């Protein structure tokens, strides 16, 4: 199974100290809570190791680790078990919070760290493309969000007006 | 024939709920299969059957 191998590889990378912590977001993360929706890549948010005294973060140790294990690079992606995987730094306050609040899920005996549904929705709302809004709507329709918790997250990160706009656009006429 | 649009919509919602409730390992396997299918469609020749087969043109 492709994605499961991706998760095993990332767990290995964490166990070997290449990354500190990680969480799966995006469409694959959403699949932990919703029905699967076709996607072509895996978004993995990570906290990069920094050298003592350095403020520069580099994904190179990740790429080296994976290259050494036979994973080829394809542009910004590294291909693990046929899946293009993008390692994204948790650069914003929202992503750092999402990473800290991520939950562990069991994938048939393999642990996987995944963003909470509210953080996936908040990140999607912030990203704001049509497919991201569709994902938020998918969560709303499935009743898969703690709306109070989502509102708190959005307020903390200055996204309340994005939610109001989303509500006006997609939810008010229901 | 009268279409029961509300019924159709409800059955779609029920199906989505059933899928969402499947074990995560199953759902990830479905993602693998969906990706394969999407790639197959993307890799298919750009010419539609109508363009490549004049006999199908109106």
Question: Would you summarize the structure shown here?
Answer:
Chain A is α+β, with helices and mostly antiparallel strands.
Structural class of chain B: mainly alpha
**What does the main sheet of chain B amount to?**
none
Give the amount of beta strand of chain B, in percent: under 5%
Helix-strand topology string of chain A: HEHEHEEEHEEHHHH
Helix content class of chain B: 55-70%
Strand line-up across the major sheet of chain A: 1-2-5-4-3
Distance between the termini of chain A: 39 Å
Give the low-confidence spans of chain B.
none
Secondary structure: number of strands of chain B: 0
Arithmetic mean of pLDDT of chain A: 93
**Oligomeric state of the chains in view:** heterodimer
Number of H- or I-type helical stretches of chain A: 8
Strand fraction of chain A: 15-25%
Low-confidence stretches of chain A: none
Topology summary:
The complex is a heterodimer of chains A (174) and B (58).
Chain A: H1 2-15, E1 19-24, H2 26-31, E2 42-48, H3 60-68, E3 73-74, E4 77-80, E5 83-89, H4 93-101, E6 103-107, E7 110-114, H5 117-127, H6 130-141, H7 147-156, H8 160-171
Parallel strand pairs in A: 2-5
Antiparallel strand pairs in A: 1-2, 3-4, 4-5, 6-7
Chain B: H1 5-20, H2 24-43, H3 49-52
What does it look like?
- The complex is a heterodimer of chains A (174) and B (58).
- Chain A is of the alpha+beta class and 174 residues long.
- Chain A contains eight helices and seven strands; from the N terminus they run H-E-H-E-H-E-E-E-H-E-E-H-H-H-H.
- Chain A has helices at residues 2-15, 26-31, 60-68, 93-101, 117-127, 130-141, 147-156, 160-171; strands at residues 19-24, 42-48, 73-74, 77-80, 83-89, 103-107, 110-114.
- In chain A, strands 1-2-5-4-3 form a five-stranded mixed β-sheet, with helices on both faces.
- In chain A, strand 3 (73-74) and strand 4 (77-80) form a beta hairpin.
- The radius of gyration of chain A is 17 Å and the shape is globular.
- The N and C termini of chain A lie far apart (39 Å).
- With 58 residues, chain B is mostly helical.
- The radius of gyration of chain B is 18 Å and the shape is flat.
- At the A-B interface, helix 1 and strand 6 of A face helix 1 and helix 2 of B.
